[in-house]
UniProtKB/TrEMBL annotation:
Transmembrane segments: none
Keywords: Oxidoreductase
GO molecular function annotations of the record: oxidoreductase activity
PANTHER family documented for this protein: LUCIFERASE-LIKE MONOOXYGENASE
Protein name in UniProt: LLM class flavin-dependent oxidoreductase
Keyword tRNA processing among record annotations: no
Family the entry assigns: To bacterial alkanal monooxygenase alpha and beta chains.
Highest taxon above the source species: Bacteria
Protein's organism: Tigheibacillus halophilus
Residues in Luciferase-like domain copies: 1-293
Enzyme Commission no: 1.-.-.-
Pfam families: Bac_luciferase
Matching CDD domains: Flavin_utilizing_monoxygenases
Amino acid sequence: MRLSILDQSPISAGQTAYEALNQSLKLAQAAEQFGYTRYWLTEHHDLPGIACSAPEVMISYIGAHTQRIRIGSGAVLLPHYKPYKVAEIFNMLATLFPDRIDIGIGRAPGGSAEATNALSDNFLQSVYDYPQLVDELVHFLNNAHATLKAAPIPDVSPIPWMLGTSKKSAVLAAEKGMSYAFGQFMSNVDGAPILEAYRSAFRSNVKGEKNQVLLTVSAFCADTAERAEEIALSSLIWHLQTEKGGGQYIPSIEQAKDFQLDKQDKEKLQKMKQNMVIGDPMHLKKALLDMQKQYQADEIMILTTAHSLEDRIHSYQLIADAIGVKQT
């Protein structure tokens, strides 16, 4: 089974955005060493506790300091932008880092209404036009325009992926002949029927092409189940704080333990934990292999948001070792 990483570049308590972004680089370098297939960076706008608003900048930075791991966006929020410019950016990345660039695209706003208005003149119309924007982007990535090129033209084009959490996005990806990444970590629905709808629509609409299915899950691994629970608590409390209008930083384990929880908070925590995989290496191995079988996923992408970089790196190493990923 292939493993990959999704990174939101979280800002921990006592840390600057500069430090958070450089920790993303350190994590990517560790991921390459551990044998992870790809490393994607998210796009968020004016969201507390998250440093990366421009994944294309971080892709360039990480690409310059790694050798083999695939790097990409998870995702470029296409309705904010002109497809031609996005194609230029990712063609340039693919020229600089040959056969290593993925371009994951999505249609979420990625931030508040104020941020959306600052980025886009008519976001809702662009969401409505999303299928046409996808066509235009892929058109330029394939260098298929008669007179206009998204220069520079790389020897190996960026690989497009569609990201989503619904049957609608899955079927659209299939209709466009694109690989599909399902964000289970941010969905409360069973993704298995959605991915089956993707495979069925792909077979019906695309001939002679190979599709890939990627499943993104939130996971925390440590030497003991108790320690994994402690590491996950920082992420859980951060999400609670964000809902309450705070969440400027990922709290330390000690800060998370001190957070006062009411009955409603405790119920929310339990609900969030149901959508996470938390435990020791053997538990993670069984859970991830079961999910791979259930979803028939070609690859599992893991999101681990923790206060400590060391805990994040150790979690990813334990998971890679447990699954048996070949280290480089």
